[in-house]
């Protein structure tokens, strides 16, 4: 059964991509704990990160580090959070978002999708793409 992430990757459901390569994609979370909250997801639908092959796991973390650096640059945060939870969607994903304290790691503070400011989401995606050198599809610009 396809997860919602697989449907986003396949273009069946819209997603706001900031990165895409043959191994993984990264797109904005629709219920962000902060604007710029990005999910790094393997293309292969694997439920638990502990079941990923080592090369895919290493690649996801390399991309998460790159996106984390972009998050710090774009949002001026002290750190980029890096969290793996995995209970909400059975498809491995890393959460990266701007963080200035441990209080910022509270998912209870996530913005409900119907309350998200779409203009702030567009600006967040544009800023990340600018720093990452990617287009709206997430692929590197030529």
UniProtKB/TrEMBL annotation:
<dbReference type="GO" id="GO:0009117">
    <property type="term" value="P:nucleotide metabolic process"/>
</dbReference>
<feature type="domain" description="HIT">
    <location>
        <begin position="4"/>
        <end position="107"/>
    </location>
</feature>
<dbReference type="InterPro" id="IPR036265">
    <property type="entry name" value="HIT-like_sf"/>
</dbReference>
<dbReference type="Pfam" id="PF01230">
    <property type="entry name" value="HIT"/>
</dbReference>
<dbReference type="GO" id="GO:0003824">
    <property type="term" value="F:catalytic activity"/>
</dbReference>
<protein>
    <submittedName>
        <fullName>HIT family protein</fullName>
    </submittedName>
</protein>
<dbReference type="InterPro" id="IPR011146">
    <property type="entry name" value="HIT-like"/>
</dbReference>
<feature type="active site" description="Tele-AMP-histidine intermediate">
    <location>
        <position position="93"/>
    </location>
</feature>
<feature type="short sequence motif" description="Histidine triad motif">
    <location>
        <begin position="91"/>
        <end position="95"/>
    </location>
</feature>
<dbReference type="InterPro" id="IPR001310">
    <property type="entry name" value="Histidine_triad_HIT"/>
</dbReference>
